[in-house]
Specification:
Number of helices: 9
Structural class: alpha+beta
Keywords: Iron, Metal-binding, Oxidoreductase
Pfam families: 2OG-FeII_Oxy, DIOX_N
Domain Fe2OG dioxygenase: 153-257
Bound molecules: N-oxalylglycine, nickel (II) ion
InterPro entries: DIOX_N, IPNS-like_FE2OG_OXY, IPNS-like_sf, Oxoglu/Fe-dep_dioxygenase_dom, Plant_2OG-oxidoreductases
Family: Belongs to the iron/ascorbate-dependent oxidoreductase family.
Order of helices and strands: EHEHHEHHEEEEEEHEEEHEHH
Strand content: 15-25%
Distance between the termini: 44 Å
Length: 314
């Protein structure tokens, strides 16, 4: 079984209705899909790949080799223990956002410029993807984005880019690349390695690979889209396996609500008469509160998080 692949360029033109329907099915039944012909140039993607790999080699690898996770795995192996390391991930990661420009890696030529350009393009794509979701959910165009920007209060949505590498792991049975979780926020756009796999999603109780596909952007939806769609678009469990060969590059960009945005099932805000038949399956939460809960519970079942996030705004 493979993750569905959508030709995003078909949204323009005679195949629009069919493509919208395909994306609706992806959102409802998969929670993950891959976009091709998404409008981000191959040249830019190639540059992103190169600067990220170069950055890892020159600025990150020495730190990873001395990291806690490497020590913990080695200790278990030396002790011939049959335990696993289950509280940290075999991952090198840092975050890029508009707020932390000064902390972006600065010793890799072209890194800042390329990633800046990439983030501008990817943010536009995130907005287009959300507009498709608006349309498929029967919401006015721009609804999701407006909610993420704090509705009338206008608190800016958050757009972050996680640059990750999952280096080859000599003991992949001892540790995860990234432990299983659902994503907390809105829409996630992932540019993953062309060759090294490892990312899997849980579909109908079975872990399946998100197959590497050159120049594709993998889309998935987080817990806030689940709330907003009143459970129609469920956030899906995923994980990264540690792999014995290859250094897997993975660049995940998150389009999330502002911490000050309140998120609630969308039909609650629709016409009076529709509200009468509408049963909200999720509470209204403040995204900042949700994130406080998530910070503690990321790798635990998601259902209790929704209620746990409510208390602060009651
Ligand atoms: C994440 C995530 C997958 C990957 O950062 O939430 O699921 O391939 N990343 O890095
Ligand atoms: Ni994730």
């Amino acid at each position: 079984m493979a993750i569905p692949v959508i030709d995003f360029s078909k949204l323009e033109g005679k195949d629009r209705a069919k493509t919208l329907a395909q994306i609706a099915t992806c959102c409802e039944e998969w929670g993950f899909f891959q976009l091709i012909n998404h409008g981000i140039s191959e040249e830019l993607l190639e540059n992103v790949k190169n600067v990220a790999s170069e950055c890892y080699k020159t600025e990150r690898e020495p730190g990873f080799k001395n990291s806690n996770v490497v020590k913990l795995v080695n200790e278990l192996v030396e002790k011939k223990s049959d335990e696993r390391v289950d509280n940290v991930d075999w991952e090198d990661v840092f975050l890029l956002s508009d707020d932390n420009h000064n902390d972006w890696p600065s010793n890799t030529p072209g890194f800042k410029e390329t990633m800046k350009e990439y983030r501008v393009e990817l943010k536009k794509l995130a907005i287009k993807v959300m507009e498709v979701m608006d349309e498929n959910l029967g919401l006015p165009k721009g609804y999701i984005n407006k909610a993420f920007n704090g509705g009338e209060h206008q608190d800016e949505a958050f757009f972050g880019t996680k640059v990750s590498h999952y280096p080859p792991c000599p003991h992949p049975d001892k540790v995860n690349g990234l432990r299983a979780h659902t994503d907390a926020g809105g829409v996630i756009l992932l540019y993953q390695d062309d060759e090294v796999n490892g990312l899997q999603i849980l579909k109908d109780g079975v872990w399946i690979d998100v197959q590497p596909l050159k120049n594709a952007i993998v889309i998935n939806t987080g817990d806030q889209i689940e709330i907003l769609s009143n459970g129609k678009y469920k956030s899906v469990w995923h994980r990264v396996l540690a792999m014995p060969d290859g250094n897997r590059r993975s660049i995940a960009s998150f389009y999330n609500p502002s911490y000050k945005a309140t998120i609630e099932p969308a039909a609650l805000e629709k016409e009076e008469k529709q509200v009468e038949d509408f049963e909200a399956k999720y509470p209204k939460i403040l995204f900042g509160d949700y994130m406080s809960v998530y910070a503690e519970q990321k790798f635990l079942p998601k259902e209790p998080r929704f209620q746990a996030a409510v208390k602060a705004i009651c």
